[in-house]
């Protein structure tokens, strides 16, 4: 429970920081995030890559199903 509280506190702190950042700070943060993601992908094993791609595929399928469901509801 303490861990969840700490994560929540950390998430709120980061969110507040992002809300108050300047456009230049945002660009730097996004560039740093892209670099970190690229490094992480380059360092992953074949098994980790397969798991990541499977998870991304599942998320895309869920998103498509949700979007098609929404479009059907708005068409009525």
Descriptive overview:
The chain is mainly alpha-helical. It has 3 helices and no strands. The radius of gyration is 18 Å and the shape is extended. The relative contact order is 0.05. The mean pLDDT is 91.
List keywords for this structure.
single chain, 76 residues, mainly alpha, 2 domains, 3 helices, 8228_t:CDS:1, STPR
Number of domains: 2
Percent helix, as a range, is over 70%
Report Rg. 18 Å
- From the N-terminal CA to the C-terminal CA, the straight-line distance is 45 Å
Strand percent estimate: under 5%
Please give the count of helices: 3
Largest sheet properties: none
H/E series? HHH
Low-confidence stretches: none
Task: Give me the secondary-structure topology.
Layout (H helix, E strand, L loop, with lengths): L1 H18 L3 H21 L2 H30 L1
Pfam families: STPRs (PF21107)
Protein name: 8228_t:CDS:1
InterPro entries: STPR (IPR048998)
Question: What would you say about this model in short?
Answer:
The chain is an all-alpha fold and 76 residues long. It has two domains: 1-43; 46-76. Helices cover 91% and strands 0% of the residues.
């Amino acid at each position: 429970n303490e861990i969840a509280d700490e994560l929540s506190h950390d998430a709120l702190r980061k969110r507040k920081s992002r809300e108050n950042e300047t456009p230049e700070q945002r660009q730097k943060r996004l560039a740093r995030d892209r670099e970190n993601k690229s490094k992480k992908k380059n360092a992953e094993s074949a098994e980790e890559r397969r798991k990541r791609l499977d998870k991304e595929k599942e998320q895309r399928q869920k998103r498509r199903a949700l979007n098609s469901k929404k479009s059907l509801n708005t068409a009525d």
